[in-house]
Amino acid sequence: MTFDQLNEANEIILQEGPFAKALAALGILGATLGGPGEVQAKTPTPITQAIKQDQSYYDYIAPSEGKGKDGRPGYAYKDHKGYLTVGVGHLVLRNDKVLQQVAGRDYNNVIRGRTPLSNSQMEQLFNIDVKAKIASAKRKLPAFDSYPQYLRNAIVDGFFRGDLSGSKNTLGLMNRGEWKEAAKEYLNHAGYKKSKQDETGVAGRMERNAAAFGLYGGGSTSQQQPIRTDFYTVQSGDTLSKISKATGKSIRELMTKNRITNPDKISVGQRLSI
User: Fold this and answer.
1) What does the pLDDT look like over 222-247, one tens digit per residue?
2) Are residue 21 and residue 92 in the same domain, yes or no?
3) Would 223 be classed as within a structural domain?
4) 116, 126, 158, 217 - which has most CB atoms within 10 Å?
């Protein structure tokens, strides 16, 4: 997806209807939702229409970001909170080393809104930002690498926006495998409630993420069953006890399945069958 396609995609992805309907079908939102996105659970959108299984992080997140100054992608602009932003939702920091690396000698003109980043520069900047968000997600969710791509997309988007990274209750539910409850708690967020009142696109974006959480949690339709993987990659700071809690498998089961003789001896990067 190029930035020339973002405006059109943005209008489709941020509309509340499809994801609100999926959430109603999963029992995460009520049967009737008020406001412009009002839907009836009697005619839910198939979840396969709302959640694409194999999108890249870029294709999942970029359409929700990066409209740019006056709708021109690449130009620095003020976001809805008044913060200077450029590219795919990159918050410009004082003496921004990452942006300096990407923009090079055009840095000053970029932050002044005189010169746009190119499509390749915006994607490069996005990839750097997403790498940092993935690292944060892995620290908070030890089983992150074992999740299907559609779920990782939603989690990283939540960290990208910031509405998931500081939500201890939601993250705690995820780590306990209570995904439908996590989806409900995720929408119990001040940013979501304010967006519903102000009728901004944030609500639709958060509903899309919540629909992914609920789908993984066992919500299903005749068209779609949740996808799970059968391995876990050991991260820095992991213990077998921690992995056991994150995956729902007993320590003994993990040891037997992976021929582990000493529960204190697991290695970062080790791939465990679960």
Assistant:
1) 333 333 446 677 777 788 888 887 77
2) yes
3) no
4) 158
Q: Is the dihedral of CA 188, 193, 195, 196 positive or negative?
A: positive
Higher-confidence position of 250 and 31: 250
d(C-alpha 37, C-alpha 189), whole Å: 18
Distance CA 122, CA 117 (A): 6
Q: Which CATH number do you get for residue 164?
A: 1.10.530.40
**Nearest 5°: phi and psi at 194?**
-65, -40
Q: Output the average pLDDT for the chain.
A: 76
Rg of the chain over CA atoms, in angstroms? Answer: 20
CATH number for the domain spanning 258: value is: 3.10.350.10
**What's the pLDDT band for 14 if we cut at 50, 70, 90?**
very low
Give the domain extent around 53.
Answer: 3-216
pTM: 0.66
d(CA 175, CA 173): 5
Q: For residues 161 and 239, state if they share a domain.
A: no
Cβ density class 163-183: b for 16+ within 10 Å, e for less: bbbebeebbebbbebbbbbbb
- Identify how many contiguous H helices and E strands the chain contains and give both numbers: 14, 5
